[in-house]
Design brief:
Strand order of the largest sheet: 1-3-4-11-6-9
Shape: globular
Number of strands: 11
Largest sheet: 6 strands, antiparallel
Strand content: 15-25%
């Protein structure tokens, strides 16, 4: 999908109408939330940049508290991680029994499938990167241990992530779908890598499990095109039981084979979206993503994306032609 920039501001509205509109803005931009202004003359604005299945937003407002309650969670189907970057002011993130104070230049993560509270005791500005749970879990399957944990310059990737997200918010020129998808993937990869660095430094009792899970995911990425890649091969490579291997992936709600299939289909989708790979036939894309049979590849790709691989590529080419 193309870049979509949306801007909302309650400036000029009567106080009651402004507060009601602010609640709608926040729920529309993120997930259903309860918002409570903490002072008279409340002001707020959101600028949101949609990036494929993710978004990056700038939020400016007066003092307020924001809550994600169990009632709101029970009424939601999709779940997301949100990463807040402080630009000005001060914010407090409370989730999972932890608390992080977000100041300019620092980050905090939170997840929409569990209750959380955000508190702002003064005017503030933050950049918020929002991505689906699956998009982060595929890259770092233990992010739930880092919610409401401060990420500052002690993390070697904090500065790079800060500049990347700030630069994304400054992007206003139209971009082809293929470039938007790449930017989305790069943003998710960078955020996941920053979180991995935080997890490795946390000293949490789950660090060994986290490290093992990351090593196995990296091995899957390296051997994705190998048609023999599977549970037994991975268990033997890492000298663990298939039961423990399954347990490492249970946190993501999918089995190892399902995860491998998901990553193969994502790789194939990205390859079919990339004009630089148009020289490859559909059968070659199938083999490069680890499928032995082109027929099997076409069948599972169609089930996942609603159209055959060739049609997916042709649709992308037609969309690009319209931009020329």
């Amino acid at each position: 999908m193309p870049l979509v920039l949306q801007s909302y501001d309650i400036a000029g509205l009567p106080p009651r109408a402004g507060v009601e509109f602010w609640h709608d803005i926040v729920c529309r931009s993120f997930v259903p939330l309860e918002c409570k202004p903490e002072q008279a003359g409340f002001q707020g604005a959101v600028t949101r940049l949609a990036l494929d299945n993710c978004s990056v937003s700038t939020v400016r407002s007066s003092a307020q508290s924001v809550s994600r309650t169990r009632r709101l969670i029970s009424a939601s189907e999709e779940t997301y991680y949100l990463l807040s970057l402080g630009v000005s002011g001060r914010g407090q993130v409370l989730q999972d029994g932890r608390e992080a104070i977000v100041l300019p230049g620092t980050f905090a993560l939170y997840h929409t499938n569990r209750p959380y509270t955000l508190r702002f005791d003064r005017d503030f500005e933050q950049i918020v990167f929002m991505l689906p749970t699956d998009a982060l879990n595929a890259r770092f399957g233990h992010a739930e241990y880092l919610t409401a944990t401060l990420i500052d310059d002690s993390n070697p990737l904090a500065d790079l992530t800060r500049h990347f997200l700030t630069g994304l918010m400054a992007t206003t020129r139209p971009l082809p779908d293929m470039l938007v998808s790449r930017l989305t993937a790069q943003a998710a990869e960078l955020v996941a890598t920053m979180l991995i660095a935080s997890g490795n430094r946390s000293g949490a009792p789950t660090s060994h499990r986290m490290a093992m899970g990351l090593q196995i995911r990296n091995a899957i990425e390296m051997r994705l095109r190998d048609p023999d890649l599977g549970r037994r091969m991975l268990a033997e490579q890492f000298r663990i039981s298939t039961r423990y291997l399954d347990d490492l992936f249970a946190d993501e709600g999918m089995g190892v084979a399902e995860y491998i299939m998901k990553r193969r289909l994502e790789w194939a989708r990205d390859a079919l979206s990339d004009p630089s790979r148009d020289r490859y036939q559909i059968g070659e894309i199938a083999r490069m993503s680890g499928f032995v049979s082109q027929a099997h590849f076409s069948r599972v790709f169609s089930a996942a994306h609603g159209c055959a691989p060739r049609d997916y590529r042709n649709n992308r080419q037609n969309r690009l032609a319209l931009l020329v």
